[in-house]
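Lab notebook, bench 4. We co-purified these components, and the gel suggests they stay together. Before we commit to crystallization screens, I want a quick structural picture of the whole thing.
Request: model the full complex, all chains together.
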Amino acid sequence: MGTTQILIAGFGGQGVLFAGKFLAYMGLMEDKQVSWLPSYGPEMRGGTANCSVIISDESIGSPIVSAPDILIAMNLPSLDKYESSVASGGMIFIDGTLISRGIERNDVKMHNIDATKLASQNGYSGLSNMIIMGKVIKECPALGNAYVEAALSKVVSERHRNLYDSNLAAVTLGYNI
Amino acid sequence: MTDKVLMKGNEAIAEAAIQAGCRFYFGYPITPQTEIAAYMAKRMPKISGTFLQAESEIAAINMVYGVASAGKRVMTSSSSPGISLKSEGISYIAGCDLPALIVNVQRGGPGLGGIQPSQSDYFQATRGGGHGDYHVIALAPASVQEMADLTFKGFDLADIYRTPVMILADGTMGQMMEPVKMKDYTPPDINKDWAVTGTKMMREHNIINSLCLDPESLEISNFKRYEKYKTICEKEAMCEEYLTNDADIVIAAFGIAARVSKNAVNEARANGLKVGMIRPITLWPFPKDAFERAAEKAKAFISVELSMGQMIEDVSLAVRCRKPVYLCNRAGGMIPSPEQVLAKINEIANMSNSK
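Here is the predicted assembly.
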């Protein structure tokens, strides 16, 4: 499969870094090379946040994703900023609750997930990120889906064990849209 | 499935330090290395270690000085402006021939600068940094795995040579997560009979002191220290060579710059250009031999750096100005892209073709 470059972007607090870590662990468990690089600094305290995830069969050179195969835009500023950077033939996943416009590119495929609304309707408030992850896994077979649970149990910390079930349910919900 | 875990580079350093037997950490928070302190704050109390957030960087390095004098493995970490503050203490530690590990997760400067990744403390790390004739061994990790591996190595080198060792990383290396596996580690068997541990009335006092008002004696101690540095230069220089055997153009890059450059080298190779890379792992001692060897065949060198061009001076010295050395750089917290490096490679390749 080669290399999949993923960029996840949104507001601080939307779980951008967490979602990226989840995907990176999925790759790790498939015995692939992975890297995860967050934006750090003021944006961690609110404002925009993003992270670069690379999952590859080969050793990874630069961990910086500048032309993602997969862009996950969780708010409008992120879509505005990164839409043009997506590699031709790539995919853009957007949270349709928070982003009212479609995409301008016609050489990439868009998946519009009503994630924030689905999350609040189903009692998974704050898990719109994981609903989108479910859809990402469904649409990107290259990422594999064998280790969803194992990866989740790595990223949900011991202290927040009680949130494991709702995270898994959110991923499943997104997968089955 | 794998037994590897994902760790941030900063966390990998902290965990490796603990596994290397370091039980004393003194620091003062600064982005982008704060995870090292946070990790130590969490772990040290559970293993009867000491984590102490000092009132300043200057206090922290002097606490390191104290523990090092007592012969225990000890470390501190900071980022660029904080390392400048620690430089006085590092000079004292070097002047007393004490082992200690200092981590610099660099950010853009000068001054307070920014918080994004940089390599602009290269001069400071490789020329000593503080006052007086001294060096620190400067190690440059280019992956999270190496952040861990070079931490083990750093403590060993510090003990073996009784010298401060610096890990010179950058914001990217500190913040990124990659798979990492801690090695099975046994520390080298070293007798620290010089340490101040209390005589119990059984031996002469050990004295740790960098003050020496007699110039003849001070000269002798400097000469002696430089004998040690000579051995370090002969034995400890490390680098990774990537596709250098037949290379016409050789890139020199360390840390994140090497990661970015690797993409460009692969791309250039795919386009039929003979390009390779030398990645110094020790910045001091600088791996001169690899560059000298490469200079026999290569037509040109490119130093790729997150600075205004600092390592380029060592590259030029190592190839003794026999071949041109070009700079490809960003500064102030910006990172060169693989495309920028590739463009430079193409530019140089076209230049030498048209000659």
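The mean pLDDT of chain B is 97. Worth comparing against the SEC data before the next meeting. The first strand of chain B starts at residue 5 and ends at 8.
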